[in-house]
Specification:
Structural class: alpha/beta
Radius of gyration: 27 Å
Strand content: 15-25%
Distance between the termini: 70 Å
Shape: globular
Number of strands: 22
Helix content: 40-55%
């Protein structure tokens, strides 16, 4: 009897389990079908924009370099959780440009909800907003709980800034935070054996020092100071204040002042609640008090702009190089720059007769020295076909990111771009202390030659092995500086004077010749078109071809779930964990900038 009962219970359990599995599978397939159909419909038609509409820029998104970089979280999709909000920089800029000329758009509403974007990315968005003002249409900005410093940099362009009476403006200045791991590594018994060239090449510092070196402090103070001054100058000009006044208020902790003081100091214009803000917008667009505002998303307006795009047989390729070069992520999750894939893309464009030139969009802190050289060679071969190459730099184009940029005929950047860091290093961890003395494991080595165990994690490098690796790193540095000298048409000695691994802001980089002019992707595209005497009828195509959301989800679903769990459990410590994990997993001699977090 008991046996029969257990069989019934087990059978019921299995049945319920199978039913749940089938339900989950059906839900996922249905989601694919529904969203796939939705995508097909939305891609086939361009949305219509009604009269008296407002472009609504919700500054609560993460800004990506291009469309399609966001990932699909099926767990959130099926279980009803929050999806991560992302929007691409090209979509934002295209929407703002379309809003300026579209007669149905009366103005722009900036809702300050904490945009997640780099400083150079914000500079591009702000520049687009500044150009929009020439249309004589309004820009209003509103902060509900408060306005972050990065959002205020954008909001300062507005005709009027409105703030909740209990809100704040977080103007505090810039700071950089670099985690140092040496004490931790000493405690667990890991020694990072470092070989480098460049006094300022500080990417290795967190693994060999307890705190920041004088050289690294100098370069960070310089580029942070220049970036902050550029931001303050822009804010001051828009708010009709002096830079000295902005800095004075910042130093007096304006971030915690009551809201009415912010009006008095001209940081904001008026205080109001959200419903009052909505009514102001209704009055501006002649919408009845009981009617909803005609708010248009950037995606919809960018779609309208795309439907008007010029086209022609001649093509300029925009090739994206985003993330670390040949880092762990580019192998495991598909993000970052895979040098083999990028080279393959460039060589395919080289052989395409319709491609007249290329804009390489670089947003990278660097990575593998070997991978950087391969990408440089592919670009050089592209140029040998008589095709034009320009570079557009994003938030970062440093170390290997500059290596792959150096061969371009014209380099565009933002004043707040982080670039340079022309240096090279290698790191080989030794875990002998951890394994033998802390874990009590003795490792016996049998070898055929004197250096057969070289690079084994449980054995320290000998002086001869360190010397050999130093010579290899030196050769890499000579090659790197030589590539930069050839690309910039200057002597190698002059490059070495500004190299040494030093990081530069865009303003300084332009002064010393690492950058040619300030501008964005569109600036670089227009330069390539002019260089090739192309008429207005040319197409701009984007590469590499993006995987669909579904393909990316299937490839990295497991790793995404793990990543989300770790982020949730570790909080702010997650970034430190991630950097340590990447450092221990790299196998290359590197051209990489240090993992510095600039706090906005």
């Amino acid at each position: 009897m008991m046996k029969k009962f257990l069989l019934i219970v087990c059978g019921s359990f299995v049945g319920v389990w199978l039913a749940l599995m089938i339900f989950t599978l059906v839900a996922i397939i249905s989601s694919f079908a529904i969203l796939g159909s939705f995508a097909a419909v939305t891609s086939a038609t361009s949305p219509s924009i009604s009269k008296n509409s407002i472009l609504h820029l919700d500054l609560g998104y993460e800004v990506t370099e291009r469309d399609g970089m966001e990932d699909l979280d099926v767990t959130s999709l099926v279980m009803g959780g929050d999806m991560e909000k992302t929007i691409s920089l090209p979509t934002l800029v295209a929407a703002i440009e379309e809003a300026a000329t579209n007669d149905n758009i009366k103005g722009i509403y900036l809702e300050c909800n904490g945009l997640m974007a780099g400083i150079a990315t914000r500079y591009e968005i702000r520049d687009a907003l500044q150009k929009f003002k020439k249309s004589k249409k309004f820009i209003y900005a509103f902060g509900q709980t408060g306005i972050s410093q990065g959002d205020y940099f954008l909001a300062s362009v507005a005709d009027s800034i409105f703030l909740n009476p209990e809100g704040s403006v977080n103007l505090v200045g810039l700071a950089s935070a670099t985690p140092y791991f040496k004490k931790l590594m000493d405690k667990v018994g890991i020694e990072m054996q470092v070989i480098r060239v460049g006094t300022f090449k500080s990417a290795v510092e967190p693994y060999m020092l307890d705190s920041i070196s004088p050289a690294n402090r100098l370069q960070q103070e310089t580029y942070l100071g220049n970036i902050w001054n550029s931001m303050v100058d822009s804010i001051a000009a828009s708010r009709k204040l002096t830079p000295e006044r902005i800095n004075q208020l910042t130093d007096n902790i304006v971030a915690i002042m009551p809201a009415d003081s912010l009006v008095r100091y001209k940081i904001v214009d008026k205080l109001c609640y959200r419903n009052e803000m909505d009514n102001r917008l209704r009055a501006l667009t002649e919408v009845d008090i009981d009617k909803d505002l005609n708010l248009v998303s950037p995606d919809d307006l960018a779609s309208v702009a795309a439907s008007k795009d010029k086209s022609g047989k001649d093509v300029i390729a925009v090739v994206y190089a985003v993330g670390e070069i040949d880092g762990n992520e580019s192998v495991t999750s598909g993000s970052g720059i895979n040098s083999e894939d990028l080279c393959e893309t460039i060589y395919s464009l080289q052989n395409d007769k319709d491609i007249k030139g290329m804009v390489l969009r670089v947003n990278s802190p660097g990575g593998s020295a070997f991978g950087s050289e391969q990408i440089w060679k592919a670009i050089d071969d592209f140029k040998k076909e008589g095709k034009t190459v320009a570079v557009s730099m994003g938030d970062y184009a440093a170390s290997g990111g500059y290596y792959i940029s150096a061969g371009a005929e014209r380099i565009f950047a933002q004043p707040t771009t982080i670039t340079g860091s022309i240096g090279i290093f290698g790191m080989i961890p030794c875990i002998n202390e951890l394994v033998e003395n802390k874990l009590g494991v003795n490792v016996s080595v049998v070898k055929t030659n004197k250096n057969s165990e070289m690079g084994t994690l449980t054995k320290k490098l000998t002086p001869a092995q360190k010397d050999a690796l130093q010579q290899m790193v030196n050769r890499g540095y000579e090659l790197f500086t030589g590539r930069c000298a050839a690309g910039r048409h200057v002597s190698q000695d002059s490059i070495k004077q500004i190299a040494e691994g030093r990081v530069w802001d865009g303003i300084s980089a332009k002064k010393i010749g690492l950058v040619d002019e300030f501008g964005n992707v569109d600036s670089a595209v227009k330069w390539v078109a002019k260089k090739n005497n192309l008429s207005d009828k040319y197409s701009v195509n984007y590469y590499p071809t993006q995987e669909t959301r579904w393909e990316k989800m299937l490839k990295k679903y497991g790793s995404v779930s793990t990543e989300k769990r770790l982020k949730s459990e570790l909080g702010f410590l997650y970034e430190y964990y991630r950097e340590a994990q990447k450092a221990l997993g790299r196998n290359h001699i590197l051209c990489l900038m240090e993992p510095t977090q600039i706090e906005m």
